């Protein structure tokens, strides 16, 4: 059969989704499929995933989706929420080997510290950190300051200060002051 004939045939959807519905439930953290766990070094990839990866990863992904919804990631175009950071922190803290240890922040996790030492991140833009109310207050205060500085009396005062600084050589006086202070 030529390749074009195979590609143009519609996919039998009932075959793709014919697995029983109980197979699609999310396991609870640490819940493994029934039966004896296989040897991780000798089992098939499917068994490894079902017994060792999915019981930990799927609840983490569910928590990630819940947190993303809480952070309004599905409503806004840009958010400060970084899914990989959340999942890293969640998986680290839910690790069964760390059961009795206290919660650890992402940037306090040892391997994260080492990673960021060599590859520092750029800071999160202020527009993502501020709420709408905080941003509006900042914009309004800047605008009020601008409008005040445009006032003719304020302009006159600023010109007088500039002239005074130039006449009295204020910058040189300040430099001399600090050199004396540093010499002490």
From TrEMBL:
It comes from the Eukaryota. InterPro entries: IQ_motif_EF-hand-BS (IPR000048), IQCK (IPR043408). PROSITE patterns: IQ. This is IQCK protein. It comes from Catharus fuscescens. The gene is Iqck.
């Amino acid at each position: 059969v030529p390749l074009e004939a195979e590609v143009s045939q519609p996919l039998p959807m009932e075959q793709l989704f014919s697995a029983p519905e109980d197979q699609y439930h999310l396991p609870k953290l640490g819940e493994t499929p029934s039966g004896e766990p296989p040897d991780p070094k000798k089992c098939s990839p499917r068994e490894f995933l079902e017994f060792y990866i999915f019981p930990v990863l799927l609840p983490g992904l569910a928590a990630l989706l819940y947190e993303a919804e809480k952070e309004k990631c599905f409503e806004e175009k840009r958010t400060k929420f970084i899914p990989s950071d959340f999942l890293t922190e969640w998986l680290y803290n839910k690790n069964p080997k760390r059961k009795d240890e206290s919660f650890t922040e992402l940037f306090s996790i040892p391997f994260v510290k080492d990673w960021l030492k060599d590859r520092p991140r750029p800071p999160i833009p202020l527009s993502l950190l501020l709420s709408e109310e905080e941003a509006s207050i900042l914009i309004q205060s800047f605008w009020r300051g601008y409008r005040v500085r445009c006032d003719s009396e304020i302009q006159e005062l600023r010109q007088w200060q500039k002239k005074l600084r130039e006449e009295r050589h204020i910058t040189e006086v300040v430099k001399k002051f600090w050199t004396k202070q540093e010499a002490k």
